[in-house]
Amino acid sequence: MTKKMDHRSNDVTGQKPLKHSLLNSKIMVQGLNLYYGDNQALKTIDIDLYENKITALIGPSGCGKSTFLRCLNRMNDLISSVRVEGSVIIDGKNIYDKDVDEVSVRKRVGMVFQQPNPFPKSIYDNVSYAPLKHGMVKKGHKCDDLVEKSLLQAGLWSEVKDKLAQPGTSLSGGQQQRLCIARTIAVQPDVILMDEPTSALDPISTEKIETLMLELKEKYTIVIVTHNMQQAGRVADHTAFFHMGELIEYADTETIFINPGRKKTEDYITGRYG
Amino acid sequence: MNNIIEPTSEKHQSSQVVNNNPFYDPTLIKRHNKAKRFKFFTIASIAFAIGFLVFFLADMVVKGLPAFQQTYVQVNVTYNEKTIASPRKAIDKKYRRIVSRAWLRNIPKLVEVSPELINTTRKTWVLANHQIDQYMKGHYYKIKDKQLKLIQQMEQQANIKLKFNSLFFTHGDSKIPENSGILSATIGSILTLIVTMLTAFPLGVMTAVYLEEFAEDNRWTQLIEVNINNLAAIPSILFGLLGLAVFINLLGMPRSSPLVGGLTLALMTLPIIIVSSRAALRSVPDSIRQAGYGLGLTKVQVVQDHVLPLAFPGIMTGSIIGMAQAMGETAPLIIIGMIAFIPDSPGSIFEAATVMPAQIFTWAGMPERAYVERTAAGIMILLSVLISLNTLAIILRKKLEVKW
Amino acid sequence: MLPTEKEKLNLILNEIMKLGTTTLTMNQVILESLERCDTCALNKIKKIPKKERYESIDTIDNLIIKVFALYTPEARDLRELIAFLKITNEFDRIANSCNSFIRDFPNSLTDDVDKDFILEYAIPLQKSSVNALTYALKLIELTDKESVDDYYKQVVIEESKNDDLYKIIEKSLLKKINSDMNLTKDYQDIMAALRRLEKIADRALSIATLMHYAKVGGAMGRV
Question: How far apart are CA A185 and CA A200, in angstroms?
């Protein structure tokens, strides 16, 4: 869905910013409220996430960015005390509608976690397990091709092509994370969500994965949560600043880092927060 | 005089030490001594426990080892029609009191098996009476003087010997001590255990999977959890009463059978398996489940293909420990009747049987002196089985542990 | 380094070089016209309009700020970017000086003054400025330390040559003024115009100092 021309990059309330005329909205979040029991964790979030772009969610600890990310693929449904209001519209359909199966949502919206968590199976099985279960491929030639393609896209093929039978846990931290990315890609999602994907890794592995993200954005829409602002600066096209469950500001990354519109954003960026 | 000088020199020394050594700390000496005392107490307790264990084991072994030997006497045995009809006549009158009644009873069967023996007289090694046996082993005996002389004579002629007691392992219980063995009890134990495991393991694991993975965290599940934990602490004899009431009286199952025994023990082992399976399931890191859900897998797929395989070693270990415990249970089985005198091995799980601990209990209550060593021997065998089961659990756990 | 960062750094470098080349070309054209004694040609030299200059400088400056904000460069990258930020200013002042010279020198060359004498000094003056600027520009693209030091020394030499030349011109022109007080204003105008050329060499030295700092390190300031 394309949006009409509206060049306001930040408005005073900061709530309905950034409508690009030339960009496709892949995910439209409208009036999203989330409650953990009685405690409101997300307050009326309105945001459009654009196709084939990297959007970073930044903010201090406990501001709700990870919770928000998990709303995009209904992972919060796994927690029994969570209640969600509002809508998350992906490709024109609200994923919280009654007739939408959460399992099928997660097939289209994949997730990579903070701690690399490959299954304790072989590298091959790690990548092939979900596609086989979803019935996307059958065991054999096609499956091998899919595994190879996914590992290639994740930049891991050359390092593991001779040891596909070894357990996924035998790889280094950075390789394990790339394996998790390959595993997510194998299911052929449209969107990849990443929850602090490099916070457990060393700088060189981090750089490899950031380069990978920049390549992946050609095919996928990427939303990443990061507590490292510099990472948002390096990879993200757009950045959203969350604070205490509210979306304070959402704009081009340059704008957030050079000319933030809200004082709260500026305080956070400059380190004068708290 | 020395005393007066030493403290000052010590002080002088210590102040010198203070000057030179920045790490000198006098309070450390007290702390180190306290630690040493504590360590001493812990070592002493272990030594105490080991001492008891060693004492117990030594006592058992000393009492039980003689059971693995049995006295045999070499006498002439006549096989003919007369002796088959009346086996007492097969041997010489003077030896009749010495040989075992049980062996004599067995003559007709012997002839049936080896027909060439008929109308022959052979010198064979015959099982001796249990009193003779006790005499040969140096224990208390009740033998008339005449026989005593005869035995001493035979000793000189080397016609009386202690041999390996193979029929301890091939015979079931018997009123004749020298003829008794542990076979029927062993088979009974095995059958009972099979029933227990086949019932308790699937039920326990599935319950644990449901409680851990699928159940919501509300009052009902908490209630169930509390009750399961309580069940594990109930005195085992009450399970026997439950078995009696439900399985035997209500459902009419055969009394004393491995079926009923197995089901009763299953009820007892169930809480243990559930608790240890839950712990094993809980030990699977949540990140695996999250990864599974993130890929769009259903709950069943995540549990079946990822969580259970990882929890399996822990579940196995818990089950084997539960099984080992069940093997040693006596009280509930007494109530359902497995304490009866069962000489023959059970052929199926529906026939009456006894189990090893019950057998030991029975033998311990028998008047004949010969049963003392058999009781101890039974305990030794039971202990070896239990220890090997537990060792198996440890080995399996180590081998199947998945490295993260 | 991420490819996006590399891209932007290359872009900044190219823009700086473009700006530098434009400035150098203008100076070279000035030199040529002086050498051909074609003072009218000076009038014809196209001045780069202020607006255009400011546009390209602002582009570069904003790009540099963007790189700072998004990539927090360190060490050599940091030094280079800071140097570039200041160099844009220097190029601007050089362009300003050139424009002023182009505007003032032809007018000050009235028929009464000793044209040949003046040109005799003006040409080497501009030549040394052009040389200084050329070497300074070369420094921007260098990487190895030894060459950097060498070129820097060259710039220093040219700049001091330039200084000396100007002092001589000043003295000589003052002498001329003494001999004919009527032409005081004319000769003063010429001195003012020639001072512009001298400033170009100064600017070139500033550029070279900044680039030396960028490539070799240390603290910012005169070496």
Answer: 21
Nearest-angstrom CA–CA distance, A8 and B340: 93
* Domain architecture of chain A: domains with CATH: 25-270 (3.40.50.300)
pLDDT at res. A192? 96
Q: What is the pLDDT of residues B112-156, one digit of tens each?
A: 888 887 888 888 888 888 888 888 888 888 888 888 888 888 888
The full DSSP string for B338-352 is TTS---SPPSSTTS-
* pLDDT at residue B402, rounded to an integer: 62
CA distance A258 to A265: 11
| Average pLDDT value for residue range C192-196 | 89
- Count other C-beta atoms under 10 Å from residue A6's C-beta: 13
Structure tokens at A259: 């000319």
Q: Is A114 on the interface with B (CB under 8 A)?
A: no
Q: What is C3-216's CATH topology?
A: Methane Monooxygenase Hydroxylase; Chain G, domain 1 (1.20.58)
pLDDT at residue A15, as a whole number: 44
A131: which residues sit within 8 A by CB, 6+ positions away?
A137, A143, A146, A186, A187
- For A246, C83, C201, C220, the CA distances from C93, given in Å and listed in that order, are 49, 16, 11, 20
**Cβ–Cβ below 8 Å for A110 and B294:** yes
Type of residue at A169: T
Q: How far is Cα C92 from Cα B345, in angstroms, rounded to an integer? A: 110
Instruction: Identify whether the C-beta of residue A249 lies closer than 8 Å to the C-beta of residue A241.
Output: yes
Chain position carrying tokens 């859900």: B293
Listed by number, the residues of chain B in 175-234 with a beta carbon closer than 8 Å to a beta carbon of chain A are: 216-217
Contact (Cβ atoms closer than 8 angstroms) between residue A197 and residue A166: no
A210: chain C residues, CB-CB within 8 Å: 2
Pick from B354, B361, B363, B357: which is nearest to B382 by CA?
Answer: B357
Side by side, the strands of the sheet bearing A109-112 are A109-112, A191-195, A221-225, A54-58, A238-243, A246-252
Q: Tell me: the pLDDT tens digits for B83-93?
A: 778 878 878 78
Q: Which amino acid is at A22?
A: L
> A215's torsion region: left (phi>0), alpha (psi -120 to 50) or beta?
alpha
Q: Which residues contact C65 (CB under 8 A, 6 or more apart)?
A: A258
Query: Which chain C residues are closer than 8 Å to A216 by Cβ?
Result: none
Please give the Cα distance from A46 to B218 (Å, whole number): 34
Distance in angstroms (rounded) separating the CA atoms of residues A21 and A18: 9
Backbone angles phi, psi at C212, to 5 degrees: -60, -45
CA angle C216, C220, C223 (to 5 degrees): 70
SS3 C4: helix
Token digits of residue C70: 């998004």
Q: What is the ipTM of this complex?
A: 0.85
The candidate with the shortest Cα–Cα distance to C201, out of C101, C80, C83, C53, is C101
List the domains of chain B with CATH numbers. 66-165 (no CATH), 183-400 (1.10.3720.10)
pTM: 0.78
Contact status, residue B326 vs residue B265, Cβ threshold 8 Å: yes
**Best residue in B295, B300, B305, B401 to probe A by mutation, most A CBs within 10 Å?**
B295
Residue C7 in contact with partner chain A when CB distance is under 8 A: no
- To test the contact with chain B by mutation, choose from A101, A129, A196 the residue with the greatest count of B C-beta atoms within 10 A, namely A129
User: At a CB cut-off of 8 Å and minimum separation 6, what does C13 contact?
Assistant: C84, C140, C141
Minimum Cα–Cα distance from B214: chain A residue: A78
> Measured in whole angstroms, how far is the alpha carbon of residue A22 from the centre of its chain?
22
C2–chain A Cβ distance below 8 A for any pair? yes
- Please give the C-alpha separations between residue B359 and each of B75, B186, B338, in angstroms, as whole numbers: 33, 9, 9
Condensed to tens digits (0 to 9), the pLDDT of residues B218-228 reads 898 889 989 98
**Residue B292: count of CB within 10 angstroms of its CB:** 24
